[in-house]
Design brief:
3-stranded mixed beta sheet; globular; 7-stranded mixed beta sheet; alpha/beta; about 25% helix; about 20% strand; about 200 residues
Length: about 200
């Protein structure tokens, strides 16, 4: 038990991080989104042309923006977005073809309306941009607790670069981790761009 009475230390940390995100004002969110868009485009360009990029649409106060997805598409990359499966498991994926290709999905998400490409399509991704509440220096990622990415990221190919998108103060010295948690190779932050972390695995 923690001082807050939580058995899982991830719970109290999630609460604190979510509260901090809710306190970010609109001007800061807009500046953050613009910087992350530039960072994502530069990161993709460093990996090559015509990439397959598995990304996400931010929910609520999550870092990121639809503009980031549009900018990646404008550079000629194929952008795939997650589709939450009917039965808990790995995420399905579908192509993002612009704002008009989205519809409301579960968990407050917006999802592409195009053909489902299957859970295994992440194996063909060159770059995966994942949401996170925080990441530590070893690459441990703290998510929202649904487990969807924990079940999905192990499918990524050996050459796939997995990067978590977080705010500047969300790279921590350590976050609670479990053996099944999949580490990310780095973080993309608005103020500093990409930071490479401990060995992903």
């Amino acid at each position: 038990m923690t001082a807050h009475g939580d058995i899982d230390p991830k719970i109290s940390l999630r609460r604190r991080l979510l509260a901090a995100r809710r306190g970010v004002d609109a001007g800061r969110r807009a500046a953050r989104a613009a910087a992350l868009t530039d960072g994502a485009v530069a990161l993709a360009a460093s990996r090559g042309a015509g990439l397959v990029v598995c990304a996400y649409l931010p929910v609520g106060s999550e870092p990121g923006s639809p503009a980031m997805l549009d900018a990646l598409r404008a550079q000629g990359h194929v952008v795939l977005l997650p589709v939450v499966p009917d039965v808990p498991g790995g995420l399905d994926w579908a192509a993002y073809d612009g704002p008009g290709s989205l519809a409301d999905g579960p968990l407050g998400l917006r999802e592409p309306t195009g053909p489902r490409l299957g859970v295994a399509v992440i194996t063909s991704a060159d770059l995966v941009l994942v949401p996170a509440l925080a990441v530590d220096r070893a690459g441990n990622r703290l998510g929202r607790g649904g487990g969807y990415y924990d079940r999905t990221l192990p499918l990524a190919g050996a050459d796939t670069l997995v990067i978590a998108v977080v705010d500047d103060d969300e790279l921590l010295d350590t976050v609670p981790a479990e053996p099944h948690d999949v580490r990310v190779a780095g973080v993309l932050r608005p103020g500093t761009g990409v930071t490479t972390l401990g060995t992903a695995g």
